[in-house]
Amino acid sequence: MGSDDMKAAAARAAMDHVENGMRLGIGTGSTAEKFVAFLAEAVGQGLEIIGVPTSERTARLCLEGGIRLESLDDVPELDLVIDGADEIDPALNLIKGGGGALLREKIVAHAAARMIVIADDSKCVEALGRFPLPVEINAFGAEATRRAIEAVARDHGASGEVALRTASRGEPLITDGGHLIADASFGHISDPQAVACALNAIPGVVEHGLFLSMASRAIFAGEAGVRELTVP
Ligand SMILES: O=C[C@H](O)[C@H](O)[C@H](O)COP(=O)(O)O
């Protein structure tokens, strides 16, 4: 089974947790997009949900699929959010933001009673940090903020650099919220809570991609099939 099929298998399994009448947060990224396709199919067959998307791209895909959307301002409390992740540790702590959507994803996840994360097996790690941690930062003073993140990373044993993310033509990537993304290569984050606190203390940091104690269930798909993990 290729990685695309695994993502689709996890997304399909997540549909078992979607119930009629739900207010549903809808994630961003290639795995979440598989979920949007299954959701659109179910909506076409009569499922009624209200969706709140975590990015402009997801909103577009949902609308193309006939999924009813509302803004989080109109539907501020959600029953469930289903989203992908870049890394998932055994306690279901996550790194997210590889697609640049971490701010809206975290706001939506925080507004949801439950978060289910869907992924192929390659996202499963013993400790977070191999995937560079995305940090959304304000454009004002971006270099000063980048250096402050670098100092935090160094204090926490980072092995690599902190780089501003660029888009396809080399210009800085701008998020849906109008911010920049700095990717911090830790290699291994031994104390995610301490890193999260230190990043939150930097004024130019809007949000970071550590989603700690937010997911209550992970659905992984791999060669051996689909397995579900809940918080220990
Ligand atoms: O900003 C993007 C999100 O956090 C994605 O959910 C994450 O990067 C995983 O994306 P994918 O399913 O494409 O690996």
From TrEMBL:
Molecular function in Gene Ontology: ribose-5-phosphate isomerase activity
Active site: 105
Catalytic activity entry: aldehydo-D-ribose 5-phosphate = D-ribulose 5-phosphate
InterPro entries assigned to the protein according to its UniProt record, in alphabetical order: NagB/RpiA_transferase-like, Ribose-5P_isomerase, Ribose5P_isomerase_typA_subgr, Ribose5P_isomerase_type_A
Amino-acid positions noted as binding substrate in the UniProt annotation, renumbered to this chain: 28-31, 83-86, 96-99, 123
Highest taxon in the source lineage: Bacteria
Keywords: Isomerase
GO biological-process terms attached to the record: pentose-phosphate shunt, non-oxidative branch
EC number(s) from the headed UniProt entry: 5.3.1.6
Transmembrane segments: none
Pathway: Carbohydrate degradation; pentose phosphate pathway; D-ribose 5-phosphate from D-ribulose 5-phosphate (non-oxidative stage): step 1/1
NCBIfam families attached to this UniProt entry: PRK00702.1 (NF001924), rpiA (TIGR00021)
Family: Belongs to the ribose 5-phosphate isomerase family.
Task of the protein: Catalyzes the reversible conversion of ribose-5-phosphate to ribulose 5-phosphate.
Oligomer status and interactors: Homodimer.
Protein name: Ribose-5-phosphate isomerase A
Annotated source species: Roseitalea porphyridii
Primary gene name: rpiA
